[in-house]
Specification:
two-stranded antiparallel ribbon; mainly alpha
């Protein structure tokens, strides 16, 4: 393993890969800073650009975009009170108040440093934790894997949405879309309507582009067109000072660990991690009354937590093939395009791809920090781009991306259909992340269920009897039932007015 890590570091630090990490980090920061363009949308649009790249180069580029976009969303949130990504809402609560008090530079400096530290800590956990998880994952059988998928989808409803019931409905819809195409065991066609383009199911990349890009274009079309009445305020020096940073060290470290752990949970994205980190910082703070009025601890906690999600969310995606949120689902699409099947065997079959990718995330975090410190006054100008320009550019890139995946014109219609579905669901306040997770995980659940049914029949057992043979399967079943019951109970309670509503979208 040590030899593979060293070789991965050497590959990641090749000049071409360094340049790719730099370009992806800067581009991700710009996309994240642009209100209305999230990390998920950015990656969905850029995946087609990686078709001609090697697997290593593609993952390095997309991973850097992920890191940069999660950070970039806080820029417009602090300066203009308009979060670029849902995760930046928690940062905005104190960051914008600091900017109004003339401390915008200090808030942005804390933001940069906290994001950098949180991101690097999570990548360290990813580097040493993912191979260990992969070893244990080799012991998982079809029955356990089926219930892991079901449990992952149930947590999306329980954790990843403001309305648990809507989250569960969206996840179920995604699972239904995921079974379109030929049956994995018998080859029978389902819901294809005699369209050859659907025989292999709905392409993940096309669904991603439609759900997140086209729906966002329609949302942007409701805006003010070419008008842009916002002005970026002067922020001054970005360095917050050694004394303030020393006071924030425990907050940053605690939130970094919280974000990494939250990232491991399917459905719990960067937005949830940011609020949990901020709430914990307030609980431990000596001046909790300052939160919401411009507390530096609030900015540090939220940013360290939401950037730490990056490394944590990649662990279940790489070791189990289960994306923790919509962004890692987009990255999973990039893996599949290049013939890499995420799962326990990936670290044995493709260490020459994974370890350079992991090390490149260290570079990506470094690059967005350096870019922000030395070029923030230029990066911040991106928030002034009118929606009337953003919408057609996104639409054009979406059409190109959908067609170029398989060079089939029908995919464009699939994209528009998914886009209209996404738009209607967003207007009804349904989350989109569970849908794309269901499309990816649905075939995996079905395939493993078919295997279990075959094994149960061979053993002359009922399906439930086969499930009850191993303690791990029983544990996963119990967790799934508990999560679903918790979701329904939480959804039946009236939301408290004082509670900050989390965004419906994943970053």
């Amino acid at each position: 393993m040590l030899e593979q890590i060293i070789e991965g570091a050497l590959v990641a630090f090749e000049l071409r890969h360094i340049l790719l990490a730099f370009a992806g980090s800067v581009l991700g920061t710009l996309l994240g800073a642009l209100p209305g363009v999230s990390a998920t949308l950015g990656i969905a649009l850029l995946v087609p650009l990686t078709f001609a790249m090697s697997p290593v180069a593609a993952l390095i580029f997309l991973g850097a975009v992920y890191c940069g976009a999660i950070y970039g969303g806080s820029i417009s949130g602090i300066l203009l009170n308009v979060p670029g990504t849902p995760a930046a809402v928690a940062t905005m609560l104190d960051g914008y108040q600091m900017a109004k008090q003339g401390k915008g530079g200090t808030a942005l400096g804390i933001d940069i440093i906290s994001s950098f530290v949180g991101g690097q800590i999570s990548v360290i956990v990813l580097l040493f934790g993912a191979p260990i998880v992969a070893i244990f994952a080799l012991e998982i059988r079809s029955a356990e894997f089926f219930w892991i998928v079901i449990f992952a989808m149930s947590t999306v409803g329980a954790i990843g949405s403001t309305s648990p019931l809507k989250g569960i409905i969206a996840a179920t819809l995604g699972l239904a879309i995921g079974v379109i195409g030929s049956h994995p065991m018998t080859g029978a066609l389902r819901f294809t309507f005699n369209q050859p383009a659907l025989y292999e199911g709905v392409p993940v990349v096309t669904a991603l582009v439609g759900l997140f890009s086209i729906s966002q274009v329609l949302i942007l079309a409701e805006g003010k067109g070419m008008e842009s009445q916002m002005n970026v305020p002067s922020v001054g020096s970005l360095w917050p000072g050694r004394r303030l940073l020393w006071q924030l060290k425990n907050t940053i470290l605690r939130s970094s660990l919280i974000g990494t752990i939250v990232g491991l949970i399917p459905g719990a994205g960067a937005d949830i991690a940011a609020f949990i980190g901020r709430n914990e910082a307030r609980r431990y703070s000596k001046t909790p009354e300052l939160f919401g009025k411009g507390a530096p601890e609030g900015v540090a906690a939220a940013e360290a937590a939401n950037n730490a999600v990056v490394g944590g969310s990649l662990i279940p995606m790489l070791t189990l093939g289960i994306p923790g949120n919509a962004v890692t689902a987009a990255l999973l699409g990039g893996l599949l395009i290049h013939g890499l099947i995420p799962g326990p065997m990936l670290f044995q079959e493709a260490p020459d791809v994974l370890y350079p990718f992991i090390f490149s995330l260290f570079l990506a975090n470094l690059f967005f920090a350096v870019t922000a410190f030395f070029g923030l006054k230029y990066v911040a100008k991106v928030v002034l781009v009118p929606q009337g320009i953003v919408a057609p550019v996104v639409a054009g890139l979406a059409i190109i991306g959908a067609y170029s995946f398989r060079n089939m014109g029908f995919d464009i219609w699939i994209m528009f259909g998914m886009g209209m579905l996404g738009y209607v669901l967003r207007k009804a306040d349904y989350p989109l992340a569970p849908i794309i997770l269901g499309i990816i995980l649905g075939p995996l659940a079905e395939e493993n269920l078919d295997r279990v049914m075959t094994l149960a029949k061979a053993a002359n057992l009922s399906l439930m009897g086969y499930f009850l043979q191993r303690w791990l399967t029983i544990t996963l079943m119990s967790l799934t039932i508990f999560t679903l019951v918790y979701s329904l109970i939480r959804g039946s309670r009236k939301p408290q007015s004082a509670t900050v509503q989390l965004p419906a979208e994943e970053d």
